[in-house]
Write a structure and sequence with these properties.
It is built from 3 helices and 2 strands; from the N terminus they run ααββα. The protein is mainly α. It has a domain of 31 residues.
């Protein structure tokens, strides 16, 4: 069975709480413990090219924009 809209089965299952709980259990996204999806840029939310050194948590694009405001200097 395929659904074009993910909200449709939820609308149908609201009248059946036991089946709704089972549907949400098996179809909800799993918790991430490792990998790219775990760390996001705190400014834009991008997953890739993440700088976490010094607990910054910026992607490389955002880091270049705010580096001088934070106190980093460009030496070369």
């Amino acid at each position: 069975m395929t659904y074009s809209d993910y909200r449709k089965p939820l609308k149908q299952l609201r009248t059946k709480p036991v089946k709704l709980k089972k549907y949400l259990k098996h179809n909800s996204p799993k918790k991430r413990t490792t990998g790219l999806s775990l760390r996001k840029c705190r400014r834009c939310g991008q997953h890739g090219a993440h700088i976490s050194k010094y607990n910054l948590h910026y992607c490389r694009h955002c880091f270049r924009e705010v580096a001088t405001k934070i106190g980093f200097k460009k030496y070369s």
